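Entry 14. Structure prediction run on the chain below.
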Amino acid sequence: MRALLLLFWSAALLAAADREVYWALWFDTEDYIAPEADDAALRLAVELEKLDVRATFKIVGEKARVLEQRGRRDVIRALARHDIGYHAENHSIPPPPAMYLRLLGMDEGAVEFERREGQGVRDLQRIFGVTPSCYGQPGSSWGPQSNIALRRLGIPVYMDEGSQVGLDNQPFWFMGVLHVFRLGPYALRANLDEEGKLEDAKRLFSERVAELKRRGGGVLHTYYHPTEFVATAFWDGVNFPRGRYTPPGDYRPPPLRSRESSERAYRIFLDFVRHAKSTGVRIVTGRDWPQLMESPVRPLEAGQAKRWLREAIDVRGAYAAADQLLAVLGISPRLVDGPAQRVASTLRAPALPRHLFERGKQDATGYLERHGRLPSHVWFGAECLSLADFAATAAGDEGGAEVRVRRGVLAFERFIAADPRKAFTWAIHPENFEAPELLELGRLQAWTLKAARLK
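Output returned:
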């Protein structure tokens, strides 16, 4: 009987663990113009500490330097007791990331991102004493090249909300970086201006938590900006609208809230946080995510990978299309990048002689080993197959003297935004700005897209 009770208790604990819901609260801490935003960041940090809630403050490099120049050690100390993330070097001074990355390839773009954004990371390390736990783009100014640079900078997590890439409204791996991004219905906020809507916001939060528990657990997040609690408009919209450059000497402060309005905003927010805590969510920061997730490198049996790729070149839960192709090629599991460009097949023959196919397969393996990314195409003599066609052909290889050539369709591309204008809508981008080139790079890198599994 005692053994049965222990078994039942263990099963109950495992079931409860499976249903655990994680909640991240983060602040884009960016307004380096209005001193009132410094006080807002301080108050939020202190009030949350009283509630025993650790948040992630994603800080702009220039904001950190301005806090230092203003002698606001009180703000720096208070923020440092929470988690420190990174939110770009200067946020909105043109050109923001999507503008300068748009016409660059993967490697050149990664180097340029690190050149422009690396100083902010180093200043946060100097001022706060830690490497930022995560990064999030300013506004919708996204570019996949940033992921390569983030790995070099030692930042393992991309935490933000946007439309460019996502997977089932839950965390995912993309280019070897853990993304808590595009959570959609699980990105929740209370309106700071309408106290009458607070109960609806609390009710929705509870419903989303219950929903995730029924699904076996999951992740949701909430984000604000300290400046929202003291200003009625964003600081950058006042000074850098539609790509306009304003020199520092001409900066204008954003219009400020009245004291009553500001106090109402804090009151609504803190009530919302107290409610979130009461639902039993596990509160986490950007620094917690890597420890909470299973390894993205997982063994995969070649036969299973072949079966999946023959059906469709797609994401299969915690296995990216790249993982499946590596297994088919007999390469040990590892993180790789997607191809740098899209190349069409020139090979039109219906089949390849065995010796020529094996030579091309060996060449593809050598490229991958040398460059750490999938090849955009694979050579068979003087002709080539696109990566998609090569993957489909390799998966369909049944042995024999010839290998039938198959055409591959990249089903995983549906997880990348299709509208090059809507995906980059932001008051700071120039009017009608669009970046189809960045979405195309995103589709190429979606070979690496897969679900992130909670431990």
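The CA atoms of residues 255 and 387 lie 53 Å apart.
Filed with the rest of this week's runs.
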